[in-house]
């Protein structure tokens, strides 16, 4: 009799604890998907390991929207347009919004927020308890088409992305979630905006000395051994070029972001 | 007896609810983690685990810095003596700043040498009015102890030279602020820019010296203006 009582109590306790755990899992699942880890072949290789191992992580299904970013600046006044320090965000920061705390009629609250800097995207991610994806993580997810986790060698897939790259950015960005979701269940990774990544500044290319290895050696320690691994992956080259042209306080009207989270 | 079991169950449920409350309270409090570090070498890993609220640079303090001051960065560092350092504490003196890592065998010794060239060319002026700062991009390995070793090996005067290590995120932010590019090469080293950055008394970038073994005349022209 005594045993039954104790067992009952323990079962109740376990049930209560388990339900609290599943609640937080469901909360996450509504906005993020799990990306199963695997190997990623960097576009440029050095003398290090060719394949980069990626651990599983959660990724936002959708890019961060104007209305979500508005909540962030309301809670963090130092990131409001008139208050942000120029060293963290240039003069284009949120310049499409009506003012510090209003989007205005011409801004779609559900479209991805753009005109934000790397610093501000990072601050938003931290505020959410998340982080920006690394290049490897982002490219790993972006290599998937609708049916395959890695469509990097699929010329059709490359053509679809290049078609989008060659079109001028839309005057008014559509709602997030309006392009197909890919193999992982992630929407709009191609097709609406470019996205910030955490380690955007790891691309060691100098505009002034392209092709001059001796000068490169002088400007960058250890960069002389970079070699492209897949010369036919034009979209990845374009992204590589775009990233290396950025500075962390640049705010661009077709550059937004989404967050990821480690699996604990 | 039945009452006893009922009472026991209620107690256990109460404990369960308390645990749930504790879990949620912990989650919501994660952004309010307060640093309570002491200054010792072991605390580098402590810093690495903490990207939340910083012990320096509250919004009021940040107000003091100019728009383009790198001291606006909320970051935590430890110097070669194990003391906690805010970047903002460098304010008031011109700074010659370089990112490096202690085990680098090619470029970093040359960069340190280039900085020493600047230092020796400033001789005769008020040398202690300048700060020479080396920030590690390899916080996993560069403990205050290894920074102290670098200081001694290179005969750097600790009155002027400060070597800093911190956490990876702060390194990333500082690198982003000054336009320094670097990448872990996967075999224990880094590819990185060879860049010496000169800051004025407010922490604003006034000049950048790109490359190795370069002439330091331009640096001196800029630095001598501060005298």
Report the total helices of chain B: 7
**Mean pLDDT rating of chain B:** 80
- Specify the structural class of chain A: alpha+beta
DSSP strand tally of chain B: 9
Mean pLDDT of chain A: 81
- Rg calculated over all Cα atoms of chain B: 23 Å
- State the CATH class of chain A: Alpha Beta
SSE order of chain A, as H and E?
HEEEEEHHHHEHEEHEE
* Residue share in helix of chain B: 25-40%
The largest sheet of chain A has its strands arranged as: 1-5-10
Estimate the helix proportion of chain A, in percent: 25-40%
Strand content of chain B: 15-25%
Spatial separation of the terminal alpha carbons of chain A: 40 Å
Largest sheet of chain B: 7 strands, mixed
Give Rg of chain A in angstroms: 22 Å
Strand composition percent of chain A:
5-15%
Describe the largest sheet of chain A: 3 strands, antiparallel
User: How does the overall form of chain A come out from the CA principal axes?
Assistant: globular
Distance from N terminus to C terminus of chain B (CA atoms, Å) equals 88 Å
Order of strands across the biggest sheet of chain B?
2-1-5-4-3-8-9
Stretches of chain A where pLDDT is under 50 for at least 5 consecutive residues are: 16-29, 206-215
Distinctive features:
heterodimer, A: paralog of FGE (formylglycine-generating enzyme), 3-stranded antiparallel beta sheet, B: alpha+beta, 7-stranded mixed beta sheet, 7 helices, 37% helix
């Amino acid at each position: 009799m005594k045993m039954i009582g104790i067992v009952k109590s323990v079962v109740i306790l376990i049930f209560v604890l388990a339900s609290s755990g599943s609640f937080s899992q469901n909360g996450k699942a509504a906005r993020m998907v799990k990306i199963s880890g695997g190997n990623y072949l960097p576009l440029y290789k050095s003398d290090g390991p060719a394949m980069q191992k990626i651990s599983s992580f959660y990724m936002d299904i959708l890019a961060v929207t104007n209305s979500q970013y508005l909540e962030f600046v309301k809670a963090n006044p130092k990131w409001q347009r008139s208050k942000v320090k120029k060293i963290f965000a240039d003069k284009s920061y949120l310049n499409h919004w009506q003012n510090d705390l209003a989007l205005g009629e011409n801004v779609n609250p559900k479209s991805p927020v753009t005109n934000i800097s790397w610093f501000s995207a990072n601050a938003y991610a931290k505020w959410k308890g998340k982080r920006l994806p690394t290049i490897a993580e982002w490219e790993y997810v972006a290599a998937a088409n609708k049916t395959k986790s890695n469509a990097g060698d699929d010329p059709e897939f490359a053509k679809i992305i290049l078609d989008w790259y060659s079109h001028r950015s839309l005057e008014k960005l559509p709602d997030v979630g309006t392009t197909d979701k890919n193999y992982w269940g992630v929407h709009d990774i191609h097709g609406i905006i470019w996205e910030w990544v955490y380690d955007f500044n790891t691309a060691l290319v100098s505009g002034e000395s392209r092709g001059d290895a001796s000068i490169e050696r002088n400007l960058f320690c250890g960069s002389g051994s970079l070699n492209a691994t897949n010369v036919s992956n034009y979209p990845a080259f374009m992204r590589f070029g775009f990233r290396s042209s950025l500075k962390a306080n640049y705010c661009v009207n077709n550059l937004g972001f989404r967050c990821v989270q480690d699996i604990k | 007896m039945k009452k006893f079991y009922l009472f026991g169950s209620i107690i256990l449920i109460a404990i369960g609810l308390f645990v749930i409350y504790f879990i949620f309270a912990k989650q919501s409090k994660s952004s309010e983690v307060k640093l309570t570090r002491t200054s010792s070498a072991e605390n580098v890993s402590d810093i690495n685990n903490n990207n939340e609220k910083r012990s320096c640079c509250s919004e009021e303090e940040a107000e003091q810095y100019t728009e383009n001051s790198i001291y606006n960065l909320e970051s935590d560092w430890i110097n070669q003596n194990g003391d906690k350092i805010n970047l903002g504490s460098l304010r008031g003196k011109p700074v010659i700043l370089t990112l490096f890592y202690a085990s680098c065998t090619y470029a970093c010794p040359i960069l340190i040498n280039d900085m020493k060239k600047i230092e020796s060319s400033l001789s005769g002026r008020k040398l202690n009015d300048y700060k020479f700062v080396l920030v590690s991009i390899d916080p996993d390995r560069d403990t205050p102890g290894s920074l102290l070793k670098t200081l001694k090996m290179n005969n750097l005067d600790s009155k002027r030279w400060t070597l800093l290590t911190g956490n990876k995120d702060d390194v990333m932010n500082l690198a982003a602020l000054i336009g320094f590019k670097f990448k872990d090469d996967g075999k224990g080293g880094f590819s990185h820019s060879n860049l010496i950055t000169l800051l004025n008394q407010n922490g604003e970038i006034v000049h950048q010296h790109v490359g190795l073994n370069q002439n330091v005349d331009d640096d001196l022209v800029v630095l001598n203006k501060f005298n």
